[in-house]
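Thread: Modeling a multi-component assembly for a lab meeting

Hi all, long-time lurker, first post. My supervisor asked me to bring a structural picture of a complex we are working on to next week's group meeting, and I have zero experience with this. I have the sequence lines for every component (577 residues in total). Could someone generate the structure of the whole assembly? Inputs are pasted exactly as I received them:
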Amino acid sequence: MATHLDDPRVIEFDVRTDEMLVNMGPQHPSTHGVLRLVLRTDGEVVSECIPHIGYLHRCAEKIGENLTPRQWIPYTDRMDYLAGMNMNLGWALTVEKLLKYQLPEKAKHLRVIICEMNRIASHLVGMGAYGLDLGTFSPFLYAFREREKILDLFELACGARLTYSYLTVGGATHDLPSGWLKQCEEFLDQLLPVIVECHALLTTNSIFVKRTAGLGILTPEMAIDYGCTGPVLRGSGVDHDLRRDGEDRYTDMYDGYAFEVIVEKDGHYPKDHEYPAVPREAILGDCWHRFYVRMLEVMQSIDLVRQAMDRYSTAKGDFGTPVKLTEKLPKGEAYLETEAPRGQMGFYIVSDGGTIPRRVRARSSCFCNLSVTHELTRGCLIADVPAIVGSLDVVMGEIDR
Amino acid sequence: MSGEAFLDTLKKRFPDRITGANFEAIDPWIEVAPEGIVEVCTFLRDEPGLQFNLLNCISAVDYFETDPKKAAKADFQPHLELVYHLWSLPNKTSLVVKVMLPRWQDDVVGQIPEVPTVSGVWSTADWHEREVYDLSGVRFTGHPNLRRILCPEDWVGHPLRKDYEMPLEYHGIRGR
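Re: Modeling a multi-component assembly
Sure thing. I ran the full set together rather than chain by chain. Output:
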């Protein structure tokens, strides 16, 4: 529940005690990896929260300056390790932009299938782990059971379950195996009722609503100022999704697909009559809305995968031929952002005209999303800190790179 | 607004601040003098027709060749380039702003170059500038909290410099 220092209902907050510095993390279970939060507390109330990051830093950018772009693809997997495919895609598209490479139609639809499937898997973990942060264990098991099936499908497609390196510069490493689409279709059919169950377990659960609604309110202005993107930005009511608004090279992939950006407009989400209603306590931009946007995005992704599978099975061309491992890069630079599950993932490549780039840069979405923590946690209770940080759904591998 | 018209407006407004531009590049860019970065960025953010209200990324690119043979053939003078990637949410357009800096202030090796902070224009810049300071070694003057962010606070050197050498030892851990 959102309780602030100036809340007159709470008598306890009139009593001031000595300030104390509390370390939350880096091993705290609800910090999603090795994130350390230093809290300055006055009793139970947090007056300041300073995130300390860098525990997973391996300077992937420096490694990228010594490898060719295709050799660097495995390193992108290890950034947002819950959405490796989306990371591969971001980097592959950036290099293709520099190479001015044109993809065959079929490869584009293949990428949509794979990336949206990975988005579902990633949001399932986000949802399950968020329940875990708030003290409920069951949704986590439900989510991981479903995610497991997606990983099985990915294993069939590329042989790996976490670090795929599947989408690569010029297309993908393999085509989808025969019968894959049918299995995927079956999976999606049985996923829908599970999501409905998850809505019952979390979205409309009164304890969950009390723990998240009205807490950690991020105004649209603040979200833009801090460069928050993805569900965090849309949860604040800003209508922006790179799949619709991004650069041509990226939006081409989604050209002709029917989908609506998941954002609240005039008090309604797209197709919200099919989902649980927004509780009265929820305020736009709070933890509950960020969670809800993710849940609706799962449904949207299911729909997108279905559309992509139809197009893929009739499309011309092939799955794309990967470029040479030591493809010569033209002199120049390119920057491209894609809509990864956690926000806009940007890659930047600077080339001198050799096979190895001069500079490689990854703009992490979680890095910007996390930088707003100190604003959101000011004046909240210690117990609400995991709820707020969890609602940002950060992955430390991506922040630290 | 077309590239040419946009550049004209900018040049009229800031005659001595805009030092170059390239609208033929894959991502069109303008070059701004270091001392003018804050006013140009504020203008780009607030001007009704532009509204670059989202700062996507700040990167530093080190133009330097460690190999003397390659350095002799290189078509650039050693320098650091700060690259700001901007995005306008209302207009759905992007822009790249570049700032050229010397690799070392006053050519004194070890003295890192300085540039005014834009963290007052976009709060995103706060952490991004800390990262650039940490990894590439650029001092952002006026930054509220310029500390290392990814490396430990007592780390020596700036790893994304081309001439960076990994320390032999860090608190008893072998480095090389």
